[in-house]
From TrEMBL:
It is an enzyme of class 1 (oxidoreductase). Keywords: Magnesium, Metal-binding, NAD, Oxidoreductase, Transit peptide. GO terms for molecular function: isocitrate dehydrogenase (NAD+) activity; magnesium ion binding; NAD binding. This is Isocitrate dehydrogenase [NAD] subunit 2, mitochondrial. Its EC number is 1.1.1.41. Its cofactor is Mg(2+); Mn(2+). The keyword Mitochondrion does not apply. InterPro entries: IsoCit/isopropylmalate_DH_CS, Isocitrate_DH_NAD, IsoPropMal-DH-like_dom. It catalyses: D-threo-isocitrate + NAD(+) = 2-oxoglutarate + CO2 + NADH. Belongs to the isocitrate and isopropylmalate dehydrogenases family. Octamer of two non-identical subunits IDH1 and IDH2.
Length: 337
């Protein structure tokens, strides 16, 4: 917090629709007089000592400010690029990815009262990036599960359940098949649960969880779901589908010191630069960020304006069945502040 009473927050605008949806957040925050100054940084990778890496200024900015809001970063496939998203998560040890998925009042979907809470392990598992060719035509990819990373995210999940008032934590797994890796995750979950006697604990197979959530998500409304990396990636997109799609789901990458908030969706190259993107997911991520920073009044005010705009249904973007451009939606939210 500076001497002017404002908090400095790092802004990574990102690729594709990133700059358009970041602008919406900036416009709405300034209209709502949120006491934040943005420090925009470029994370375009640079070649440093023969390796591509995030520019040092970007790393310094997040380290200094502790909090960042991030647009989507595109990862080109098959060109030897390291995922910048993974690099950021590793650099700042952002070990837990919190993905709430809540129905938007007034926006009609098959289920009205979805209120899912999902925590994804964010540093290892299937995303360890350890892949190699065994012989021509045979590749191997290693799913790494460690006691340290599992215990850290599981402890976070129980603490999160306690903090948000959910009585149950459920580990989602495939320990029937991946007996050692998911088996370890599950056994650590049981151990950690003993330290949280007020929170009940159980476990569910991933396939069963998918079937049950799409059949009726409401029994999950008092549960915090916690799972290894890839399962969380897929399950959270599936849950996003239940409430109206990727344009609506926020997330927070939480670390020991720094936290980076971002939408669940990617850079949407198909609609980039056309002013068609739905900025709600990034806006709701920025609201998670404000709550994390303790700026709850501003968070509530902006959230209420977003929900009002969506419920009115007159100025919504194409992904939700409307005709509004990103900037028109932003103007409607500002009017509703
Ligand atoms: P995507 O999420 O970018 O797009 C999937 C579909 O959803 C597209 O049809 C897109 O138009 C639509 N969509 C997504 N966000 C939207 C929004 N806010 N408003 C309206 N429509 C929206 O997924 P993809 O096409 O698989 O990935 C594109 C790029 O994004 C890839 O390079 C990928 O690596 C990257 N990506 C980045 C992140 C991140 O930075 N956290 C996450 C996922 C994907």
């Amino acid at each position: 917090k500076g001497s002017d009473g404002k908090y400095m927050v790092t802004m990574i605008e990102g690729d594709g629709i990133g700059p358009e949806i970041s602008q919406t957040v900036k416009d709405i925050f300034s209209a709502a007089n949120v006491p934040i100054k943005w420090e925009s940084v470029d994370v375009t990778p640079r070649l440093i000592d023969g390796k591509t890496s995030i520019p040092q200024e970007a790393i310094d900015s997040v380290t200094r400010n502790y909090v960042a809001l991030k647009g989507p970063l595109a990862t080109p496939i098959g060109k030897g690029h390291v995922s910048l998203n993974l690099t950021l998560r590793r650099t700042f040890n952002l070990f837990a990815n919190v993905r709430p998925c809540k129905s938007i009042a007034g926006y009609k979907t098959p289920y009205d009262n979805v209120d899912l809470s999902l925590i994804r392990e964010n540093t290892e598992g299937e995303y360890s990036g350890i892949e190699h060719v065994v012989v021509d035509g045979v590749v191997q990819s290693i799913k790494l599960i460690t006691r340290a990373a599992s215990e850290r995210v599981l402890r976070f999940a129980f603490q999160y359940a306690q903090d948000v008032g959910r009585p149950k934590v459920r580990a989602v797994h495939k320990a029937t098949i991946m007996k050692m890796s998911d088996g370890l995750f599950l056994s650590i979950a049981r151990e950690v649960s003993k330290d949280f006697p007020n929170i009940s604990f159980d476990a569910e197979l991933l396939d069963n969880a998918c079937l049950k959530i799409v059949s009726d998500p409401t029994p999950y409304n008092d549960v915090v779901l916690v799972m290894p990396n890839l399962y969380g990636d897929i399950l959270s997109d599936m849950c996003a589908g239940l409430i109206g799609g990727l344009g609506l789901t926020p997330s927070g990458n939480i670390g020991d010191e720094c936290s980076i908030f971002e939408a669940v969706h990617g850079s949407a190259p198909d609609i980039a630069g056309k002013g068609l993107a739905n900025p709600t997911a990034l806006l709701l991520s920025s609201i998670m960020m404000l709550q994390h920073m303790g700026l709850t009044q501003h968070a509530d005010q902006i959230q209420a304006a977003i929900f009002k705009t969506l419920a009115e249904g007159k100025t919504i973007t194409g992904d939700l069945g409307g005709k509004a451009k990103t900037a028109e939606y932003a103007a409607a939210v500002i009017k509703n502040l």
